[in-house]
Amino acid sequence: FFFFKQKTAYEIVDCDWSSDVCFSDLAAARAGARSVVANDIDTLSLVAARLNAAANGVTIAVSSEDWLAGNPGDPEADVVIAGDVCYEREMSTRAIEWLRSHANRGRLVLLGDPGRNYFTAQGLEERARYEIPTSLQLENRGMRETVVWRVLPQP
After folding, report:
1. Taking Cα atoms as reference points, which of 23, 38, 29, 31 lies closest to residue 2?
2. How far is Cα 106 from Cα 126, in angstroms, rounded to an integer?
């Protein structure tokens, strides 16, 4: 991820919506982000996120607030990261609109997607491509290609 290359301290908002793994949170915190907030409406997921952060020697804040239902562009952040949120039509539409509201405010907005059915690359810029190991039980294959996209502001 780009975090390890940056020297600037960012305020990171991660809206992974299943932040229990919180890889992007951990990477941002280790890279020196001023603060990191993991978001998920599932409070059990946030407990797991905190435990994972503690096990990795970093501190993150958590929020169970439904950010998609709030004001566009909230909460404030320098960088917004979302991962694997295009698995349902309505969720994909709401998430992309919310992410774009942050991009329209000049924020760096990154979206990781492993090729879900409701993903569209329209208005996005590819930043990186990875082959990642997956569970045969969940993905029906051993490896899956995933792409990190930058969400561009609307013209």
Report:
1. 31
2. 18
Element (H, E) at 49: helix 43-55
Residue 24 burial (C-beta neighbours within 10 Å; 0-12, 13-18, 19+): buried
Pairing of strands 61-63, 35-39: parallel
Starting at the edge strand found earlier in the chain, the sheet holding 108-113 runs: 61-63, 35-39, 11-14, 79-83, 108-113, 143-151, 124-133
Q: Whole-model pTM?
A: 0.85
Q: Which residue has the higher pLDDT, 90 or 135?
A: 90
pLDDT at 4 > cutoff 50:
no
Residues found in the chain: 155
What's the pLDDT tens digit per position in 18-53?
444 677 888 888 888 888 888 888 888 888 888 989
Strand partners, 122: none
Name the β-bridge partners of 58: none
* Residue 104: partners with Cβ closer than 8 Å, 6 or more residues away: 73, 153, 154
Residues near 35 by Cβ (< 8 Å), separated by ≥ 6?
A: 11, 12, 61
How do residues 141-152 score in pLDDT, each as one tens digit?
888 899 999 999
